[in-house]
């Protein structure tokens, strides 16, 4: 894992924070924030979250009305990782959990790819990959191999944990 603090300039970061925490940003409920096809039971009632898809690469990229606003962030990530193609980019929001619920480990794609997590707000709810943990901190970027199991925690000290999760090909 590589950690980059103060990844974006303060003004652009604040605009992303204001957008994604504002009343007009569209968040979509997801029964499983990891997009797993595993059937939900009472054992994983806290596995839910909210997301907003900015980009999904298919024959033609699927985009949202906010994609062009987020593209400079994605291009900066491509520059520091040496990536050539955006596979996916989405906003994720997990909500407060009194236990700091640990979500199920997952891989983003089963083939080699670069995963990036950009933390939008200060929160708790660490990201875990192998034996490393990274604390969410506003304007922090974490990159790692997206085909290695990883997970995150819901926050137990904050209302929410907001990040932009993206994946790339070299």
Can you describe what's shown?
- The chain is an alpha+beta fold and 170 residues long.
- The chain has a single domain, classed as Jelly Rolls.
- The protein contains two helices and eleven strands.
- The strands form two sheets. Strands 1, 2, 3, 4, 5, 6, 9 and 11 form an eight-stranded antiparallel sheet that branches. It has a three-stranded antiparallel sheet with strand order 8-7-10, with no helix packed on it.
- The chain is globular.
- Residues 36-42 have low confidence and may be disordered.
Task: Outline the secondary-structure elements.
Elements: E1 2-4, H1 10-21, E2 28-30, E3 49-56, E4 62-63, H2 67-81, E5 85-95, E6 114-119, E7 127-129, E8 132-134, E9 140-145, E10 150-152, E11 160-169
Antiparallel strand pairs: 1-9, 2-3, 3-4, 3-5, 5-11, 6-9, 6-11, 7-8, 7-10
Indicate the CATH topology: Jelly Rolls
Q: What distance lies between the first and last C-alpha atoms, to the nearest angstrom?
A: 17 Å
What is Rg?
A: 15 Å
Q: Structural class given helices, strands, pairing?
A: alpha+beta
> CATH-wise, what's the superfamily?
q2cbj1_9rhob like domain
Order of helices and strands: EHEEEHEEEEEEE
Mean pLDDT, nearest integer?
A: 91
- In CATH, the architecture is Sandwich
Q: Which CATH top level class fits?
A: Mainly Beta
Q: Helical residue percent? A: 10-25%
Biggest sheet overview:
8 strands, antiparallel
Query: Structurally, how many domains make up the residues?
Result: 1
Low-confidence stretches: 36-42
The proportion of strand residues reads 25-35%
Number of helices: 2
Q: Estimate the global geometry from the Cα principal axes.
A: globular
Give a count of the beta strands, DSSP E runs of length 2 or more.
Answer: 11
């Amino acid at each position: 894992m590589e950690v980059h603090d103060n990844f974006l300039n303060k003004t652009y970061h604040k605009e992303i924070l204001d957008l994604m925490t504002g009343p007009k940003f569209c968040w979509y409920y997801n029964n499983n924030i990891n997009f797993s096809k595993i059937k939900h039971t009472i054992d994983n009632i806290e596995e839910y979250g909210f997301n907003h898809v900015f980009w999904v690469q298919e024959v033609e990229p699927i985009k949202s009305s906010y994609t062009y606003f987020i593209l400079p962030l994605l291009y900066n990530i491509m520059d520091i990782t040496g990536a050539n193609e955006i596979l996916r980019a989405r906003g994720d929001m997990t909500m407060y959990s009194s236990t700091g619920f640990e979500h199920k480990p997952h891989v983003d794609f089963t083939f080699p790819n670069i995963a990036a997590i950009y933390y939008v707000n200060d929160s708790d709810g660490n990201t875990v990959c192998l034996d490393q943990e990274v604390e969410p901190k506003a304007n922090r970027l974490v990159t790692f191999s997206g085909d290695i199991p990883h997970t995150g925690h819901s926050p137990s000290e904050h209302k929410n944990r907001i990040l932009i999760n993206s994946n790339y090909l070299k």
